[in-house]
Amino acid sequence: MMKKLVLLVVSCLVIHVVAAQVKVHTDMRTPTWNLIGLRYDAEIAPKKWGSVFPPALKALHNKVIELPGYIIPTKVGAKFSEFMLSIVPIASCPYCGSGDIPSMVQVKMVTAIPITEKPIKLSGIFIINDSGDDRSEFFLLNAKQL
User: Fold this and answer.
1) Staple 121 to which of 12, 34, 68, 86, CB 3.0 to 4.6 Å?
2) Are 70 and 87 in contact (CB under 8 A)?
3) Strand 79-86 versus strand 40-45 pairing type
4) Distance in angstroms (rounded) separating the CA atoms of residues 126 and 139
5) Residue 50's closest CA among 102, 128, 119, 125?
6) Cα–Cα distance measured from residue 132 to residue 129, given in angstroms and rounded to the nearest whole number
7) What value, to the nearest 5°, has the Cα angle with vertex 112 and ends 100 and 38?
8) CA–CA separation, 45 vs 9, rounded Å?
């Protein structure tokens, strides 16, 4: 009887631990996302910090690229022509869930696409915004879903 009770308690604990595990998302990291991740902050002048874009990343500027990722909406709606694309889903976003700040690209689609929690793949013109203004540092323009 005691063995059955111990087995029951252990089984319940195992089930509880398995049920409490966070759902793991599909890894969207590609060589292109790795290049985007090379951007870093540095002191570019005394007491003035800015983004640094290594040459391998700058080589993507104004080129048509493909990026897989997850839609991070910037407005309320069911369809979007503008949104952020991230390598992690919204549940992993630090502003919306938990985790580190992921690499993101601001997307401007040719035609609106419906919201989905599943990964998507896009093609578009990659633009690096190195102006230092408050806009996104990376854009994917004239994007189309593949």
Assistant:
1) 68
2) yes
3) unpaired
4) 6
5) 128
6) 7
7) 30
8) 62
Question: What pTM, to 2 d.p., does this model score?
Answer: 0.74
In angstroms, rounded to a whole number, what is the distance separating the alpha carbons of residues 2 and 25?
41
d(CA 12, CA 111): 50
| Tokens, residue 23 | 């759902």
Is 138 in contact with 85 (CB distance < 8 Å)?
A: no
Tokens of 89: 């889903």
> What's the rounded Cα separation, in Å, for the pair 125 and 85?
14
Q: Which two tokens stand for residue 3?
A: 């063995």
pLDDT digits (tens, 9 = 90+) for 16-48: 444 444 455 567 789 999 999 999 888 888 988
Measured distance CA(42)–CA(50) in Å, rounded = 6
User: To which H or E segment does residue 13 belong?
Assistant: helix 2-20
Give per-residue pLDDT as tens, 73-125. Answer: 988 888 999 999 998 876 655 455 444 566 799 999 999 999 998 999 999 99
What distance in Å separates the CA atoms of residue 60 and residue 32, rounded to the nearest whole number?
Answer: 9
